[in-house]
Specification:
With 68 residues, the protein is mainly alpha-helical. Helices cover 51% and strands 6% of the residues. It has four helices and two strands, in the order E-H-H-H-H-E. Strands 1-2 form a two-stranded antiparallel ribbon.
Length: 68
Amino acid sequence: MISYEPLWETMKRKKASTYTLQVKGEISSSTVRRLKANESVSTNTLDALCKILECEISDIIKFLPDEK
């Protein structure tokens, strides 16, 4: 499973809000909801997040293996 937990930590560290994502990066409110729910988003969105927050992809997502 992909987790966006690092995104929220990065945003907190950089003092960015979801409003920042929506205004600066033109990230839609529905995409923000998807991120909060750990649902899939496009690679274009991931690229935009990296640009907005000036960070690496690992600062936005992490992979959590399924528990068996």
